[in-house]
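Q: Could you fold this chain for me?
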Amino acid sequence: MIGWLGDGYNWVLDYHYDWVKAVHVMFVFFWIAGLFALPRYLIYMHSTKPGSLEETQWTSRCNRLRHIILTPALIVSWIFGLSLAFHLGFSGNTWLHAKIGVVALLSIYHMWMVSLGKKMSRGQRPVAEKTLRFANEAPALATIAIVIFVIVKPQF
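A: Sure. Below is the predicted structure, expressed as structure tokens.
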């Protein structure tokens, strides 16, 4: 079977599939951990006075989290995850479609949180603290759904 990047690509993934999957899972862990931390950081930043030293410190923490963990983990998770998905094939794997849909929503959530962090670092408070507390649950719910899709593989 010739894969989306040619026959040689499938051969490489055939022999290194477990390694690709291991790297994918590791970076998904890093990404989800960052997604648990970022809203919590924003909750703490929310109560600080705009322009204060404390707000500056939370801004610095958010930026480091974003640059060192969140964005690189998002990119690696998508690259390795799509490689696995193309290798597996999409036909008949409705669980895979559902998983990718949840991951896409999680990526949008990621972008929303990053956007909120940037606005808050400029002294804005675009959402209530309570909204951030509710939003903090999204990564947990997404993780539950993704694990069920990957382990149980329900067919719709």
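A (continued): The helical segments are 7-46, 53-88, 94-121, 129-135, 138-152.
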